[in-house]
Structures are given as C-alpha cells and as structure tokens.
Amino acid sequence: MVRAIDTAGNQGEFSDPAVGTPSKTHTAPSHYTAAQTNEQNNAAPLANASAGEPYTGIVNQTIIFNASYSSDPDQDAISYQWDCGDGTTLTGEIVTHAYTAPGEYNVTLLVTDSRGKTGSDTTIASILEASSPLSEPEMIGPSEGFINIAYNFSVIVNESVSTISYIINWGDNHIMESGNHIKGSWVHINHAWTIPGTYNITVTASDDHTTATT
Q1: pLDDT, tens digit, for every residue of 183-197?
Q2: pLDDT at position 41, please?
Q3: pLDDT tens per residue across span 117-133
Q4: Where do the structural domains in the chain lie, given as residue ranges?
Q5: Are the beta carbons of 31 and 58 closer than 8 angstroms?
Q6: Is-contact 201 189, C-beta < 8 A?
Q7: From residue 159, how far is each of 69, 106, 210, 212 by CA, in Å?
Q8: For the domain 15-130, what is the CATH superfamily, name and number?
Q9: Is 23 helix (H, G, I), strand (E, B) or coil?
Q10: Is residue 214 classed as helix, strand or coil in its secondary structure?
Q11: pLDDT per residue over 134-159, tens digit each?
Q12: Which among 124, 121, 107 has a CA at the least distance from the CA of 70?
C-alpha cells in the first residue's frame, strides 16, 4: 500500500501500482469560505433621518429630508431611499418633497451599504392646511398697577407651522416688536406706564402665512 500526498495537501491510498487502482481521495472540509467570513464581518449601516427635523410645513410647501447623520461602521459607501408615507419614494442623502394633503406622515429612511446590509429609521412629517388660521395670542399679566413700575406680561400662540413674531401695542403710543419665537413657548415681556389712565393692550401675532390679534 502506498500513501500519496499531492501539492494541495490531499491524501490518497493506492494499492500495488502494478495491479491496483487508486482509492478515493479524502479532503478536509473547509468550514467557512472567504466570502462567508467577509459577510460575517460586515456591520449593518446606521440610518438616521433626524438631521432636518422637525419636518413641518403646509400643503404644497417643500419639505427637505436630510439623512446626513447616517453612517456605516465599516466605512462602506451607502445609498439612501426615502418612503415619504404618501406613496412617494425618493433616493438620495438629501431630498425634497411637497405633500398635497394635510396629515401626519410616517417617513421611513432605508440605507444600504455596498455589500447589501441595510438599516432603517422612521420620522414624522407634520403637514397643515395652507389656509389654517393662526389662533389668537393669549396674554397674561396684571390688570392694574402704579405708574413708573415695570410689570411683567407673557404671551403665547400654540398653533403655527413656523416661528412667530409679536407686536405689542401698550396703548400709550409705545409699541414693542418681538420675533422668531417657537410655537407653544411663552414670551416674557415687561412695560411701565408713566401717566395714570386705563390702557388697552393689543397683541398681534404673525407667522409666515397668517396674522391674529387679541
């Protein structure tokens, strides 16, 4: 009996060369191919749709979705696909879309790396009617006092799709402007009257679309 080993390390047993035929060659199995190992070492990309939040607007207004906070742990190139929640899909890291109806839309970002692994993230687009009226501003503060003393007042508007500006007419020929306030946040102001009397305070609130007065 003769044992032979080829250049690849495979072994086989042979009977007498004069009369025998080679027996079956035995090869040790390989548990993982190089491709399998490479796939196991590939981490999924990390989708992040928050770079442009909050995604708010009105009907037919352009919304900009931004995925620039997304990344890949392996530094692989990644592609981006957006599902806007209204049947529209878009591709790209930064995309724009205008909704034709008001509502709360679940927007899904899907990122895919160059080796096929995926990751996803979901955000919300809040869309209001273009003609939505701005609610009347609310003001709180004292109803009486003394001259030459500054009294504190606070104003607020809860409904808006953008920042709010206020114009306060104190009723004594003094007007104050205060702009770029976030909806739903109280704005604190003060004023002192120099002459005794009864004064009507008027507050006008406006955003990019409408105006309301109280």
Answers
A1: 778 899 999 999 999
A2: 86
A3: 999 999 999 998 765 56
A4: 15-130, 138-213
A5: no
A6: no
A7: 29, 21, 11, 11
A8: Immunoglobulins (2.60.40.10)
A9: coil
A10: coil
A11: 778 889 999 999 999 999 999 988 76
A12: 121
